[in-house]
Amino acid sequence: RLESSIESFRLTLKSLRSNHVNTLDKICAFNQSTGATGTGYSVGDLTEQLENLDADDDDLPLIGDAEIGGKIKISLADMDLPSWEHELKVDLEIIDALLTSMNKITPADDAKLQHLKALVFSKINAPLNPGNKKILIFTAFADTADYLYANLAPELLASQALHSAKVTGKGAPQSTLKNSHLKKSYDFQELLTLFSPRSKEKTVVLPNEPAEVDLLIGTDCISEGQNLQDCDYLINYDIHWNPVRIIQRFGRVDRIGSLNTSIQLVNYWPDITLDEYINLKERVESRMMIADVTATG
Questions:
Q1: Which of 31, 71, 96, 191 could form a disulfide with 165 if both were Cys (CB 3.0 to 4.6 A apart)?
Q2: Do 244 and 287 meet the contact criterion of CB atoms below 8 Å apart?
Q3: What is the DSSP letter of 179?
Q4: Could you state, in chain order, the average pLDDT of each consecutive group of 10 residues for the chain (297 residues)?
Q5: Which ranges of the chain would DSSP assign to H, the alpha helix?
Q6: What is the pairing mode between strands 163-167 and 213-218?
Q7: DSSP 233
Q8: CA angle 116-121-124, nearest 5°?
Q9: In angstroms, what is the C-alpha Rg of the chain?
Q10: Are 46 and 8 within 8 A, CB to CB?
Q11: Are 217 and 152 in contact (CB under 8 A)?
């Protein structure tokens, strides 16, 4: 998640910490309820279960919240709880130390975010195609989309009078525009129409909205089946592990019917050590070259 954004990594650490704390609480409660048998059942519980046990029963039923896990449940009575509890506490110390360090990093300290801001404002001030200020930013994670929107949209509106929108598969779409005609926020398709008004026939769909969206931040919920070729500048803030997904993203703006004379794709590649491990950059570029050759002959 750090290859996506600082904020995404921070939220992942918080989630991991919460899971550790909840697990330690379960172990503590289990230990307190364990009788002299050491099995997670008190002597009274065991006596009652044995009296009611069927000849066909293979196991004693678990009493109370004595299981851990998601789809696969494991009885706490079958685990080496002292060792596991120790390891969880060691992990928790490391997570807390990481969170303390992460909390010192503000958006102003985030070099990747600041580089993105510079790219965005540079494109707006020097469009690839005359008058075209539209920018599409893709990320694999909704948390990162939230982070980018919070740090780009207000500044873009205040300094450039340009509107931004965010669409993800998690939560309601968001934009700096409000639908004054219908007294509500714009929905998913309406925001895409405002971002790419010519290709999505804004004059027919939203004839009463004079404004447009110039910055769209989205996840892969819009990487397929959307005509967004009014835009000429696409940024991958993080790279999806599947090379085909990158081609699908670029296909939103690299489409027949585009009036742009040139379009630009910008990729933020993973850290070199990670890329050496998963070979992502070479895989993506090879797939894109194959797609390009196939399409153009």
A1: 191
A2: yes
A3: B
A4: 77 92 90 60 46 48 60 83 92 94 90 95 95 95 95 96 93 83 76 94 88 94 88 90 80 86 87 58 67 54
A5: 6-33, 43-51, 81-102, 111-125, 142-160, 188-195, 202-205, 243-250, 272-278, 280-296
A6: parallel
A7: E
A8: 125
A9: 26
A10: no
A11: yes
Give the pairing of strands 233-236 and 135-138.
parallel
Q: Give the SS3 label for residue 217.
A: strand
Q: Give the C-alpha distances (Å, rounded to integers) separating 41 from 32, 35, 58, 79, 110.
A: 10, 6, 17, 14, 51
pLDDT of residue 250: 87
Q: Is 61 helix (H, G, I), strand (E, B) or coil?
A: coil
Structure tokens at 184: 């509500």
Q: What stretch of H or E contains 68?
A: strand 67-68
Q: Which of 185, 161, 162 is nearest to 175 (CA)?
A: 185
**What is the maximum span of the chain, computed from C-alpha positions, in angstroms?**
84
pLDDT value of position 60: 41
Asked if residues 165 and 175 have their Cβ atoms less than 8 Å apart, the reply is yes
- Say if CB 8 and CB 1 are below 8 A apart: yes
Q: Closest Cα to residue 270, out of 240, 233, 250?
A: 240
252, 222 contact by CB (below 8 A): yes
Output the CA–CA distances (angstroms, integers) from residue 141 to 11, 219, 221, 275, in the order listed.
Answer: 11, 6, 10, 19
DSSP for 243-271?
HHHHHHHHTTTS-TT---S--EEEE-PPP
- 236 and 265 in contact (C-beta within 8 Å)? yes
pLDDT of residue 194: 94
Residue 277, both tokens? 């491990």
